[in-house]
Amino acid sequence: MDLTTTYMGLTLKNPIVPSSSPISHTVEGIKRAEDAGAAAIVMYSLFEEQITMEEIQLDHGLSYFTEAFAEALDFFPDMGAYNIGPDSYFELIRRAKEATDIPIIGSLNGITDSGWTTYARNIEQAGADALELNVYYIPTSPQMTGREVEQLYLDILTEIRATVAIPVAMKLNPFFSAPVYTANQMAEAGADALVLFNRFYQPDLDVEELHVVPQLTLSHPYELHLPLRWVAIMYGRVQADLAITTGVHNAIDVLKCMMAGAKVSMMASELLRSGVGTIRRILDDLLLWMEEREYESIQQMQGSLSQQHAANPDKFERAIYRKVLSSWSDDPAGQNFQFG
Ligand SMILES: Cc1cc2nc3c(=O)[nH]c(=O)nc-3n(C[C@H](O)[C@H](O)[C@H](O)COP(=O)(O)O)c2cc1C
Predict the structure, then answer these.
(1) Which helix (H) or strand (E) holds 120?
(2) pTM for the whole structure
(3) How far is the CA of 200 from the centre of ligand 1 (A)?
């Protein structure tokens, strides 16, 4: 049984990749994921703010240094070549590469196209096999247009693309008005893969204490439907590999991702909830399911349920929508509610 897949030029032994999360905070965590069968791992993100903060601290340190010990500056290395990045992140990648055999995908998270993007090079030099870019941006300005938001993504991607030679994946959010067009713009700007979709953490309101309550809830399986639909629509229409993140919890979910057209299915919530050992169980279930149905490979099923052959996906989507609404039966308990 052949579980291999390819993802932005990398050959992976199977399609399960732990997505960016605390699983990659330590080499031990990364090693545990590899031992459980993970085909690659996306590192937790290095944030623009972390980088800028270090620069500010260094600037402060330098000016203090200059004033207090001007003569000692002779001992200071050439600043142009001085590595002021969050070294522990790069060091972790370096050590993870030594300790494991799976591809390590670095992750950068930021929203401007200046300065910090050059740290992509440090990630590459540390040995990362690829880089995932997460532009976690909430456009709150009433003056900012949708086009400008898209341009912000493209500018950052262009900067990063010019900085590194390793493959670059772009983690997208589900709120673009023309997702397929935007996805192709990302591909044209050099994205080797698109990761659908970034999961936005939605704060709650405490009406007694009158404050905003930030909360991080793990995903539910039904959240898979959104990326599944868009991967099925984009498959064959977008010139980049597609990955699904959000709502992958078991082997059937992985199969759905593959049939929709994804090259890999990424997981965080389920692994945090039940431990990375879950990967092994999912792989076993996957093999059993494929064996029983006489599938020979993962690649054989990739895209088999995509919308590639629908001449007008927009008409197809409206037809499904009408069908779903008209399938509602007048049953208060919802017992008879079914599709088809
Ligand atoms: C605790 C936690 C930390 C995360 N940290 C990051 C991060 O640093 N960078 C990032 O791009 N995504 C991060 N994510 C998002 C995940 O990579 C993933 O896209 C999201 O949780 C949806 O997948 P899931 O349904 O499998 O959880 C984090 C998720 C969780 C639960």
Answers:
(1) helix 119-125
(2) 0.88
(3) 9
